Amino acid sequence: QVQVVESGGGLVQTGGSLKLSCRVSGLRFEHSAMAWFRQAPGKEREGVSCIRWDLIKKYANAVKGRFTISRDRANNMMYLQMDGLRPEDTAMYYCAADQDWHSLRGEYRYWGQGTQVTVSS
Questions:
Q1: I need a labelling partner for 37 at 20 to 30 A (CA). Which of 44, 48, 75, 83 fits?
Q2: How far apart are CA 24 and CA 10, in angstroms?
Q3: Predicted confidence (pLDDT) per residue in 47-72, tens digit
Q4: Are 48 and 61 a contacting pair, CB within 8 Å?
Q5: Whole-angstrom distance between the N-terminal and C-terminal Cα of the chain?
Q6: How remote is the C-alpha of 74 from its chain's centroid?
Q7: Torsional sign, CA 106, 113, 49, 25
Q8: Exposure of 71 by Cβ count < 10 A (0-12 exposed, 13-18 middle, 19+ buried)?
């Protein structure tokens, strides 16, 4: 019954910005860990950023200083603000959630279907 739905992807120029959103239902959101992963063609899935119930955050080195993760408990939403986008950021972005903390490891129990981010150069 847990549902994870992400949105906000699109096409943007190098240096532009996008904000991804993820809504989770059927899960106790106030005590949950959530994360963003991405997968580009020909590459393995990689962790991008994650946020815990106590707002502990972690970022992959490739996005540090450019991406910001946040969550809104009132709306059961998680966000990823992406600034200074580069062509290397082009990938399918997935939202993941769990009641346990997995940091940037791909061990989350619940996953969305993905939203495409394309950065042109």
A1: 75
A2: 21
A3: 999 999 999 999 999 999 999 999 99
A4: no
A5: 41
A6: 19
A7: negative
A8: buried
Cα gap 80→28, rounded to integer Å: 20
Distances (CA, A) of 11 to 1, 17, 84, 86: 32, 10, 13, 11
SS3 67: strand
d(CA 5, CA 67): 20
State pLDDT tens for residues 72-108: 999 999 999 999 999 999 999 999 999 999 999 999 9
In contact, 85 and 98? CB cutoff 8 Å: no
**36, 104 in Cβ contact below 8 A?**
no
Do the beta carbons of residue 95 and residue 6 sit within 8 Å? yes
Q: What pLDDT was estimated at residue 39?
A: 98
Say which amino acid occupies 90. T
